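@here heads up, posting the sequence + SMILES for the magnesium ion run so it's all in one place. Ping me if the SMILES looks off, I pulled it from an old spreadsheet.
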Amino acid sequence: MATHTEQLTTEAAPTVRLRGLTRSFDGRTVLDHVDLDLPAGQLTALLGHSGSGKSTLLRAIAGLDHEVVGSGGLSAPDRVSVVFQDSRLLPWRRVLDNVLLGADGKEAAERGRAALAEVGLAGRERAWPNELSGGEAQRAALARSLVREPELLLADEPFGALDALTRIRMHGLLRELWERHRPSVLLVTHDVDEAIVLADRVLVLDQGRIGLDLAIDRPHPRSYRDPLLGEYRERLLAALGVTEDHTEDHTEDHTDDKNDKDQEVHQ
Amino acid sequence: MTTTTTTTTTSTSTSTSTSTTATVVAGSAGAVEALDGAEGSLAARRTRRRRGLAPGKRLPASRLTGPALVVVVWAVASAAGQLDPGAIPAPWTVLRTSGQLWSDGTLPTDILTSLQRAGSGFALGLTAGVALALTAGLSRIGEALIDGTVQLNRAIPTLGLIPLFILWLGIGETFKIAIIAIVVYIPIYLNLYSALSGIDHRFVELAEVQGLSKLRFIREIVIPGALPGFFVGLRLGVTGSWLGLVVLEQINATSGLGYMMFQAQNYGRTDVILVGLLIYGIFGLVSDSAVRLIERRVLSWRRTLNS
Ligand SMILES: Nc1ncnc2c1ncn2[C@@H]1O[C@H](COP(=O)(O)OP(=O)(O)OP(=O)(O)O)[C@@H](O)[C@H]1O
Ligand SMILES: [Mg+2]
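bot reply: prediction finished. Complex structure tokens:
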């Protein structure tokens, strides 16, 4: 279904548009003139080394960074949801009330229940967050982000704290929810396989810029063992400076990939 | 508990040479070591459970066990004639005295006066503490105006203000209530303010993401998040109100329980003094339990962590 990414991007107006986004902390530049378009309804993954600025970029798009300076513009929709690495449920509110945080109106409660049902938490509306397992709490957080019917869903390593089995199930859930609601998604992750299996497009943030922008044209649902995905994995790992059996200076690999035109879209 | 029981069972059934007393004293770790050579050591290891670090289940009415024991020792010692009745009268003497004081009408009046004092002082202190903490905790201007001032006030021992307050307000009720209010407001302010200003930054971020208005942010996140801190202050405040009361009534008694005890001291009536102390104690215990009860109700979401 998402095999025509390139056509989509050229036609529809992007949900997020960044031009020359720059952010530095105490004179250390973390984001260096980042240009990025996120088309409507695309599921994009953002990879990068620890400390490469993924969270910083996400916070800037979410409007959480009040000190971001950019030479260019930053346009993002009003209806933005964020899923954090921790579920960030308020311990003093029951699960349903947590899901409804910030939601107004009479039908809000209905939407909240529906969202909980969608993430498989029907019947747990009156539970306290303390009573949920890590995976359940993260699903509740996902439900909370859905209630707002976001145009843009930003997720900062949402599955980072979960065990491998739960993570795989959450991947299925995220993909399913995305197919039903079709928000633009920017998913920050450490996990190359997670990015490949879930996303239609993978970005690698490196040296303050988008170092690699890779479209993944494989049908869903994808298997982790799909040999054709191995090629993408190698390219991404190379861009991250990791090869199959040894680590080396990633700057060389990275420049190689940058000049590799046919896989590079949107630029 | 479970640990010891399990291990003991295993040891008695597998190795008769290990004496039961030794096993019980040694607890789980020692018992397993002692069994190492025996054939049953593997089974013992398998059934052995990790020693629980939590103190375990509460004994029923555990809070009353200690005081009850004290009363029992007191009664036994009195009955055995071990205590000088002039210094420490027997429990039944104290009971009889309180009955007399109650029926002649002096005790109810004194209790009422003391309760009124402590109650008004506490209410005033609570109101002031909460109002100041909310102002300082929720606005930067309020913080600049209030916090430093309260910290200064806190540095002055409140009871040291008594002479000054007597000169200002006279030796009547007003100064007593004012002193109690100060003793109460300080812990309430300090705890509530630090809870309000120490709000988890992650929740601030969440509120921004969810598009909460400032008002809803305060109502739905800041205040509920600060409630545990508030209750810490509240309990200190309640204790403080009794402390202030006792000190004021002992030093400047003109009526109330403290006055009663002051008079009793002049006539050498230790039984009356004990009646006064007992009532102070009951006041403290009851009010503290009441706050605890409210706290448990209001912070019911924390039960899952504490139970
Ligand atoms: N508030 C801040 N003050 C100072 N430096 C900061 C701040 N926030 C981020 N940084 C720095 O910016 C850099 C990028 O941080 P960021 O959190 O965006 O990394 P990341 O790619 O999300 O890393 P990770 O994968 O470990 O989460 C880091 O070097 C970090 O130290
Ligand atoms: Mg991060």
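MO: The pocket of adenosine-5'-triphosphate (ligand 1) is lined by residues A 25, 30, 48, 50-56, 190 (CB under 6 Å).
MO: One more: Chain A has a mean pLDDT of 83.
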